[in-house]
Specification:
Rossmann fold; 7-stranded mixed beta sheet; 9 strands; alpha/beta; two-stranded antiparallel ribbon
Amino acid sequence: MSHERKNELNHERKKLAVLISGRGSNMVALAAAVADGRVPGAEIALVLSDRADAPGRSLASERGIETLAVERLGRAREEHEREIVAALTEREIDLVCLAGFMRLLSPAFVGALSGRILNIHPSLLPAFPGLDAQRQAIEHGVKFSGCTVHFVDETLDGGAIIAQRVVALKDDDTPATLAARILTQEHEAYAEAVALVLSGDYELAGRRVVRRGAALRSDV
């Protein structure tokens, strides 16, 4: 295949940016899903962190993915977010995936990338938004929790729900043990959701994202 044709094929791929603050577990899982074809026609073009020392940056570099640190400490939110949006725009990013990015995005940021930001949260939203979702679930006494992939809007852990996975709680669960089991499901759910969104084969039904043409029961 000619060099020109390779460049053409690469350009056709949808570009993902994964935003992290820590170890990047979901980023690594997404990279594996892209590599094995579960997220077809995509590439992770950038892993961006708000911490230069985030362990996930080295994991991304090992996989040949460009990394960028845009430090937030000591900076105004507007300035910090403007630099991130500029980096995403410069690289012509098609979809932004938040993966443990520990900062609530402003309405201005969300508006600049409207409909192109996904987040994964370790609960069955709308239950237990915000921090310490696993602890919230245990303290509330629920029998089931899980994870949710959703579009990001101006609300905390709001936005239309794309995919969810259910995890049963055990009587002896701690936040750490529950988080570990949920994380396994996060890796599967995020890849599934990203593939659906990139395909464009979906529509909004209220607050749900459904495959285009899927029959919706009116009696549920």
